[in-house]
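Problem 12. The chain below contains 359 residues. Write out its predicted structure in token notation.
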Amino acid sequence: MRKIAIITILILNIMFMTSCKKADIYTFSFFDYMDTYISVSVFADSQNQADEYMNDISQIYYTYHELSTSYEPLKEDSEFLENIYSINQTLNEVIEIDYELFELLEEANRLKELTEGYFDVSIGKIVDVWKDVILDEASGYLFEEIPEQVFESIEETLEAIEVVENPYELTENNGKYYVEIKSSHVKIDLGALSKGYATQRVYDYLRDNDAIYFSISAGSSSISVGKNMNRETGFFHTSLANPVRTGSDNRTYGMIYVADVSITTSGNYEQYALYNGLRYHHIVSPLTKMPEHYYHTITVIGDDAGALDALSTAFFSMAPNIFTAWMNEHQEDLGIEIIVFNYDGTIDTYLNTTEFEER
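Solution.
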């Protein structure tokens, strides 16, 4: 359940203001983590401090990349016990795992309960069916019509895959942590959680080290920012890409102004194929096993990048009436704000303090 790159921070090169103590901006780029390009810009008092930031941030992303990947096993000399790839290869066997992965899977369970099952990391086999259809290994993501016979075969394949109520079990014993996959229908896929979760760990690390002026762009679909030193308001001006106008004109549909916050977006306009004129994309409902067609993009703003990643994924499969009821119950407690680009081209907002400018 990968996210698309939908948000673009317009200003990352923050200029230093002479009223503040001497410092410089340092930008770190990472290409090997979370299957995306990650960029972190932060003000530091010295090269030594910047180097420390870079090394610690790299270690955070490295840890969660290694633990959460479902594409390849750990190296033989890895410092970690197991990762999601190796766990997915083992059925009905209790496997010892690192605490960081145990904690991540616990968070996935919490978010599944919070979203009433609309976020479910255990449906990797179902997600793979759709990925295989919309991704052509030679040419990349398809934007053309799925043949009718192919679509019918997809439905038959999906019918044979069950969504399991209790897909895996987590246990702890004497300070050690374990997981057991309970069904052959289960494949854990943390793609819709791990990147945001790691980004939140980086955000917390920078805050704990008294960083104020910084931005983190994890593939630009998961962004966390402190304050923008170049503006008196401290805001970053962040544009929202237009999912139905991806050419040179009307590439954005709006702008938000944010600071000290995380932003994530789920959308359907980079990874999809068409069938009967509808976009069949990579965000799959655990309830129907199908990509739904209620929205083109959903942007969520809040304090926890990991939770926002999962929530935007869950919301994408909720019918509007279910989504509205969920928001009425949970928005205030969670302190989240949302902008929805509906499938019919209309825009709905659930905002309290964030300024949104439609374009």
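Discussion. DSSP finds eight helices and 19 strands in the chain. Students who got a different answer should revisit the alignment rule from Section 12.3.
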